[in-house]
Amino acid sequence: MDAGRGSRIMILYIVITAVTILLAGAVRIMPNGINHCLGNSPYNLSNKKWSRQQALNGLCLFSIFIILFGVSACRLNVGNDYAKYVEFMHLIAVGAYDYVPTEAGFNALVTVLYAVSGYENFLLVFAVFAFFTILFFLKAMYEQSDSFGFSFFLFMAFGFYFHTFNTVRYYFALALALYSIKYVLKKEWGKFILLVLLGATFHKSLLVIIPLYFLATLPWKKWQLALMAVFCSTFFFLQDFYLKAVVFLYPSYEDTEYLEGGVSWFNILRCTGVLVLALLYYKDAVKDSKRNRFYFYCNLGALVLYVCCSFLPIITRIGYYLNITQILFLPAIVSRIPDKRQKQFFTAAIVLAAVGYFAIYLMRAGNDGIRVLPYQTFMFHDMVPILSDMN
Predict the structure, then answer these.
(1) Is residue 131 located within the same domain as residue 8?
(2) 146 burial level (CB within 10 Å; 0-12, 13-18, 19+)
(3) From CA 49, how far away is CA 121, in angstroms rounded?
(4) CA-CA distance, 323 to 271, in Å (whole number)?
(5) Are 157 and 101 members of one domain?
(6) Segment 208-239, tens digit of pLDDT
(7) Residue (of 210, 182, 179, 187) closest to 197 by Cα position
(8) Does residue 14 contact residue 157 with C-beta atoms inside 8 Å?
(9) DSSP characters over 109-122
(10) Per the CB 3.0–4.6 Å rule, which of 153, 202, 258, 348 could disulfide with 105?
(11) Cα(223)–Cα(220) distance, rounded to whole angstroms?
(12) Structural domain of 299
């Protein structure tokens, strides 16, 4: 890709991000989500004002959805594993399931959509995943955040939206995980488990949130945290055992580069920063809030995983199930900082850090393992040959 075209596409991503963030800034939390149910809704307006605001919310949310869905659904060969997914879909279509590592839900969806289309319509499959992934992310932020605009800004700046161009099964599961938190906080465990089991038919890693989210709801004592720290130390001297467990869960990883781990410095720094801010205002923002304590322990758990389990190849995926809560936790902390100047300072600091992260992400967006640049669309480009086409 030439530098000029790369710059134009990068500008396209920046414009998409800026426009959707501006739209998100006009959205106000309505008193019908989990925040209202838990007594956290910061608004108390008249019915007439709410009616106007509700209409504006609907228009902005719909516009955001259409923009994000359109960009995602129209892409072609964008994402480091796009061609690999097309290959998997072809193998499913011809019944070669022995060579397909994907779960039953994904396989069934591909089969149905291909049957409805009458041909191997992989574009429709990617569009369906884009539709539901974006839908559940937006619903989760709207229903659970203290500030939809702030949460959406972090969602875009931390690269979560552009990450959905890769590993579509996983990011659909991640969207379900974020959405499922409302059931965890309301202790509607039946709904939570059913949603997780449904999502696991598309990406089985989602099952890990059943124990992880349960542990994050517990009122941990200091001695219990000390015992957990002792357990986490086993990751340093029982690495072979844990790698064998990963191979058992993901047999397709055996003897591949996927078994190579690595330290995720960006995630470690981000979790550390969030936890430091939470500890600074622990009494004001975390101590007496069941919801914020849950977010706190999720981020503490993510930090432990990134530090102690860097040798595991799937640690980033597991960690994301925990640190995705940052897009809800940071607005919740900031909204409870009692001093106005301190609130403004930390809001500005978070925004600047997020913008810096987004800039670094865009500069690396064309690298192997990310490959969201160059952006291509089926309207102007052709699909590259997949492995089956070359045999």
Answers:
(1) yes
(2) buried
(3) 46
(4) 7
(5) yes
(6) 999 999 999 998 888 888 888 888 888 777 77
(7) 210
(8) no
(9) HHHHHHHHHTS--H
(10) 202
(11) 8
(12) 218-336
Which token pair is 376?
């291509």
Pair of tokens at residue 323:
């640190």
* Whether 375 contacts 75, CB under 8 Å: yes
Same-domain check for residues 110 and 238: no
Q: Is residue 352 part of a domain?
A: no
If asked whether residues 201 and 241 sit together in one domain, one would say no
Helix (H) or strand (E) holding 245: helix 239-249
d(CA 157, CA 164): 13
pLDDT digits (tens, 9 = 90+) for 234-244: 877 777 777 77
264 residue type, one letter: S
Q: Is residue 187 part of a domain?
A: yes
Q: Which sign, positive or negative, has the C-alpha torsion 89, 91, 94, 95?
A: negative
CB pairs under 8 A, 24+ apart, for 186-194?
A: 186/34, 186/37, 186/38
What does the block give as tokens for 74?
């129209």
Q: Which amino acid, residue 270?
A: R
pTM: 0.90
Is residue 137 packed enough to be buried (19+ CB in 10 Å), middle (13-18) or exposed (0-12)? buried
